[in-house]
TrEMBL record:
<comment type="similarity">
    <text>In the N-terminal section; belongs to the enoyl-CoA hydratase/isomerase family.</text>
</comment>
<dbReference type="InterPro" id="IPR029045">
    <property type="entry name" value="ClpP/crotonase-like_dom_sf"/>
</dbReference>
<comment type="similarity">
    <text>Belongs to the enoyl-CoA hydratase/isomerase family.</text>
</comment>
<keyword id="KW-0560">Oxidoreductase</keyword>
<keyword id="KW-0413">Isomerase</keyword>
<dbReference type="GO" id="GO:0016853">
    <property type="term" value="F:isomerase activity"/>
</dbReference>
<dbReference type="Pfam" id="PF02737">
    <property type="entry name" value="3HCDH_N"/>
</dbReference>
<keyword id="KW-0456">Lyase</keyword>
<keyword id="KW-0442">Lipid degradation</keyword>
<dbReference type="GO" id="GO:0004300">
    <property type="term" value="F:enoyl-CoA hydratase activity"/>
</dbReference>
<dbReference type="GO" id="GO:0006635">
    <property type="term" value="P:fatty acid beta-oxidation"/>
</dbReference>
<dbReference type="Pfam" id="PF00378">
    <property type="entry name" value="ECH_1"/>
</dbReference>
<keyword id="KW-0276">Fatty acid metabolism</keyword>
<protein>
    <submittedName>
        <fullName>3-hydroxyacyl-CoA dehydrogenase</fullName>
    </submittedName>
</protein>
<dbReference type="InterPro" id="IPR006176">
    <property type="entry name" value="3-OHacyl-CoA_DH_NAD-bd"/>
</dbReference>
<dbReference type="GO" id="GO:0070403">
    <property type="term" value="F:NAD+ binding"/>
</dbReference>
<comment type="pathway">
    <text>Lipid metabolism; fatty acid beta-oxidation.</text>
</comment>
Length: 699
């Protein structure tokens, strides 16, 4: 991020030009706000200057308030953005905002304070504060409706979606589209304003034009309220915009400010601002410089055309990267290709893609039955059966066939990547790319770093992830990496609640009420209880003493695999997915408790949630201690994007911060003391204890 935020000042003829220069997107941090006011005062004091243009760079007029400033003490805020905008609007000389790239949030609000606005046609104008759990807090909810009317303003503010400047040509929001050089065009525009002695257009003096405003606002309250149950911001946006109708401008500003400051304190906004930062932090690898040279990936070889391989293939061809798709048998290859085609035909039917796009994407796949097809690919990703023996065969063959400098990746979800790399003569070129099913939909990609993985291979993988629209998180090598390792603990915690006396439906309902997309037992029935059972059976055979019996194994042994067999933890009517509690399962659980000498007790919903989420947190702390994850926010990103953790809670580690780490520790100790609990499992991780003792948090 920026090192020297500042503004540049120059005078062209009788027009002063203030250029915002706070790379990468002119975040309106303190220094920049001071620079703008200084530039304005300089122009006002100079008798030779008759107008002022404010502009940014080709990439950004401004990306808005500096999101990293939010957590700083209030003192760092003056001049606050509202005051900067007020100074501009109150200028006695015309001020023209010249916009290229993005003008978002406070950036657009800054431009609305100018008397005139000119822009490149493809500039993007937006008020995305709602995506941070906020609302435009520097006059946007009062000025935008005055320029474009209630409906357009409300749509922009509640959706947070940017709009191309061209759409506002000819409206009071935009005085001119500049085709040539933006600043030259803006200076000429300013000179004409002066020459014509055009009155200064102060947006605050305009009135909102909206027939039946109150009826429209009531409609907006109802529709927005219906869709924003976990987030308070959208409805507050409606209230703030409502204050632009009828009352005075200054009263409207005060209402906006009060609502903004109220939202700033909400846990939901804290969560969304955390996610914004976390998503960007995840792409950084502490010991891999950002300018590390990357390898060019012009084509990708994928081994396996099943669900995973096909989904991975689509991720690449959707990004326009050619794929060589390898299967062992023609029938499997044909089946995989047919599934991909079917997926695109369904998108075509829904109008999501055109026929041309469908044809273009399918043309990017080269099916093959021979590894020879991989001779020229720059990256190979295997999505074959999860057995180390199979991986050995695959990687030895890839090592033989692929050209020097090519990257060899495994999609393994749990096997040891270092062991896999050791099958080759080029461990520095081996990396884990763990996709989540369905791979063409799920954003999360765990980039598993082996002990010998080259830094350029890591840098290449992180850049490639961005290109295929994945959010990549680096994981070290351990059983289950970050996500599955934590989900194993989460599952064990839920099972303890089940053994203690809760029912599958009570546990699922409690977790879904907390905000998880799907309760753990419904998720097990969806994924298939046989899959988890196979893994536990393998581990039991390898290490019988470590095996802990669970009800799910009883169900799997009884052939109850979940939805695929019409019964698992729940029963399902033919062809339906609605989970129906099954007395047979209740009986199996009762028998299971009896065998293990457990007397069932009442388990509260609160205890269920605390056990499940704090188990994740405790394992997350261990993952941090071991260096498997680089930072706590990476763990949040994994859970938010791979396991349906609710965004309004910001992730398990942020949730722990909001609860308070000492409270997490007290709960863990309570569970450890419960009869039947796994005391070792509930022992608070040393890092968690250390942070709590120091009064610190994970994020
Ligand atoms: N403040 C500070 N840094 C920002 C920033 C911002 N507003 N926006 C982006 N960055 C950094 C980002 O952290 C990353 O840093 C780099 O820029 C590239 O970002 C009062 C209170 C502008 C469309 O919500 O939507 O104004 O990782 O990877 O894909 O009403 O960033 O390189 O160190 O996303 O080209 C409202 C948020 C703030 C806009 C560029 N504004 N940003 O996308 O690059 S609240 C927003 C974006 C506000 C007022 C309120 C996007 C982008 P690093 P990037 P990109």
């Amino acid at each position: 991020m920026s090192n020297q935020p500042s503004t540049q000042y120059e005078v062209r003829g009788a027009v002063a030009v203030v250029t915002l220069t706070n790379p990468p997107v002119n975040g309106l941090g303190h220094a920049l706000r001071v620079g703008i006011v200084e530039g304005l005062d300089r122009a006002l004091a100079d008798p030779k200057v008759s107008a002022l243009v404010i502009t940014g760079t080709d990439r950004a007029f401004s990306g808005g308030a500096d999101v990293r400033e939010f957590g700083t003490p209030k003192s760092g805020w003056e001049p606050n953005l509202g005051n900067v905008i007020k100074a501009i609007e109150g200028s006695s000389k015309p001020v023209v905002a010249a916009i290229a790239g993005v003008a978002l949030g406070g950036g657009l609000e800054l431009a609305l304070g100018a008397h005139f606005r000119v822009a490149k046609a493809d500039a993007q104008l937006g008020l995305p504060e709602v995506k941070l759990g906020l609302l435009p807090g520097a006059g946007g909810t009062q000025r935008l409706p005055r320029l474009v009317g209630l409906e357009t303003a409300l749509n922009m503010i509640v959706s947070g979606a940017p709009v191309p400047a061209a759409k506002f040509a000819g409206t009071p929001l935009l005085d001119a589209i500049i085709d040539g050089d933006l600043v030259d065009g803006a200076v000429k525009f300013a000179e004409k304003v002066v020459a014509d002695k055009a009155p200064l257009k102060r947006v605050r003096d305009l009135k909102v034009k909206q027939p039946n405003a109150e009826a429209f606002l009531q409609f907006a309250r109802n529709t927005v309220g219906a869709v924003s149950k976990n987030f308070p911001a959208p409805l507050k946006c409606v209230e703030a915009v409502a204050a632009s109708v009828g009352g005075s401008f200054d009263q409207g500003l005060k209402t906006e400010r009060d609502l903004f400051l109220g939202l700033m304190q909400t846990p939901e906004s804290r969560a969304l601002r955390h996610i914004f930062q976390a998503e960007r932090a995840a792409s950084k690898i502490s010991d891999v410089p950002e300018d590390t040279p990357v390898r060019e990936i012009k084509s990708v070889g994928i081994i396996g055309a099943g669900t995973m391989g096909g989904g991975i293939a689509m991720s690449f061809i959707n990004a326009g990267i050619p794929v060589v798709l390898l299967e062992a048998k023609q029938e499997a290859l044909d089946k995989g290709l047919a599934t991909i085609r079917k997926n695109y035909e369904s998108s075509l039917k829904k109008g999501k893609i055109t026929q041309a796009k469908l044809d273009e994407r399918l043309a990017l796949i080269t099916p093959t039955l021979s590894y020879d097809g991989f001779k020229n690919v720059d990256l190979a990703i295997e999505a074959v059966f999860e057995s180390i023996e199979v991986k050995e065969t695959v990687f030895k063959t890839l090592d033989e066939v692929m050209k020097p400098g090519a990257i060899l990746a495994s999609n393994t979800s749990a096997l040891n990547l270092d062991q896999i790399a050791a099958f080759t003569k080029r461990p520095q070129d081996v990396i884990g790319l763990h996709f989540f099913s369905p791979a063409n939909v799920m954003r999360l990609l765990e980039v598993v770093r082996g002990a010998k993985t080259g830094k350029d291979v890591l840098a290449t993988s992180m850049q490639l992830a961005k290109k295929i629209k994945k959010i990549a998180v680096v994981s070290g090598v351990c059983d289950g990496f970050i996500g599955n390792r934590i989900v194993a603990r989460y599952g064990a915690a839920a099972n303890e609640a089940l053994n203690a006396g809760a029912s599958p439906q009570q546990i699922d309902k409690a977790l879904e009420k907390f905000g998880l997309a799907m309760g753990i037992y419904r998720m097990g029935d969806l994924a298939g209880l046989d899959i988890g059972y196979a893994g536990r059976k393998r581990r039991k055979e390898a290490n019988p003493d470590a095996y802990i019996p669970i009800v799910a194994d009883r169900l799997a042994e009884a052939g109850r695999f979940g939805q695929k067999t019409g019964a698992g933890f729940y029963k399902y009517e033919a062809g339906k997915r609605d989970p129906i509690p099954d007395p047979a399962v209740d009986q199996m659980i009762t028998d299971f408790r009896k065998e293990r000498g457990i007397t069932p007790r009442k388990v509260s919903d609160e205890e269920i949630v605390e056990r499940a989420i704090f188990a994740m947190v405790n394992e997350g702390a261990r993952i941090l201690e071991e260096g498997i994850a680089q930072r706590a926010s990476d763990i949040d990103i994994v859970y938010l994007n791979g396991y349906g953790f609710p965004a309004h809670r910001g992730g398990p580690m942020l949730y722990a911060d909001q609860v308070g780490l000492p409270n997490v520790i007290r709960a863990l100790k309570r569970f450890a003391a419960e009869p039947g609990s796994d005391a070792k499992f509930w022992t608070p991780a040393p890092l968690l204890v250390k942070l709590a003792e120091e009064g610190k948090s994970f994020n």
